[in-house]
Structures are given as structure tokens and as C-alpha cells.
Amino acid sequence: MSRRRRAVKRAIKPDARYGSSLVGHLVNVVMRDGKKTLAERIVYASFERVSEKLEKGDPVNILLGALENARPRLEVKSRRVGGATYQVPLEIPHQRQESLAFRWMVNAANSRKGLPMREALAAEIVDAYNNTGSVVKKKEDTHKMAQSNRAFAHLRW
Questions:
Q1: Which stretch of DSSP H or E encloses residue 80?
Q2: Could you tell me if 125 and 132 are in contact, meaning their C-beta atoms sit under 8 angstroms apart?
Q3: End-to-end CA, the chain
Q4: Contact, 58 vs 67, CB < 8 A?
Q5: Which of 10, 24, 95, 152 is an S-S bond match for 86, by CB 3.0 to 4.6 Å?
Q6: How far is CA 14 from the centre of its chain?
Q7: pTM, 2 dp
């Protein structure tokens, strides 16, 4: 990895249907092999399914609520000090929180076997919105790991 300069963060384009950059980000995470239209179809179908399940109107607001429940605030990073490796807890920037939550949702949806991706993604969004499911558990596990290693917080850089 080059240490010459910092990578420039590119702005995520909003999606066509909802005009939300949040949905655009989710589409980009779902996308495989550059097949964006297929990813959009999956995300939009899962949004329709979420609206049916929760009967609460705007799916973007539901996605926002699910994201709030799934975003990790802390994580641990390995840091070598004097031959020993410590797990140092760090606060995560907002953009990385969002990226981790979406990645965890899509990976959890992929691991649900026997369901089409649109159904599995809808189920993961509903679970995260209701503060249950594997994504919220993963967030809590990450927070527990950070809490148990907070003695090494002074090694932050």
C-alpha cells in the first residue's frame, strides 16, 4: 500500500428511483461484477418487500432506521508495541460506520440459503430495523470486543 498520499473519497451518486445517496451506496455494495441494473432490481424489490412487511410508508426512512441500529460506533485495530500485539479500540468515522453496516447486511443476506437475494436482503433490513438479527449481533460483538480492550486505549495513534 502506497504511503505517498491519501486516497480521494469519491462521492456516491444517488440512485434513480429515490434520489438518495444512501440507497445508491447500498446498490453499490450489493453489486457484483459491475452489474448495477441487477443490483438496483434486487434493492428495489427488497424495498417493496420491506414496505409490505412493515407497512410504514417510505422505505428510505426504514433503511435509515435499520442503518442506525446496525452501525458500529467502535472497533478494534491491531497495534504492535514492543513485540506484543494489542487490540486497540478506536472510534469509527461516519462513512466507515455506514460502509460496515451495509457490508454486514449484504453478507448476512448472502449467507441466508434457500432464499432469493431480494427476500434475504429485505429480511435483513427488517431485522436490523427491529433491532434483532445477525447484523445487530455482530455490532454488539464488535462493541463488546472494544469494551473489553479499553485498557489499551492509551495506545491509540
A1: strand 74-81
A2: no
A3: 19
A4: no
A5: 152
A6: 17
A7: 0.89
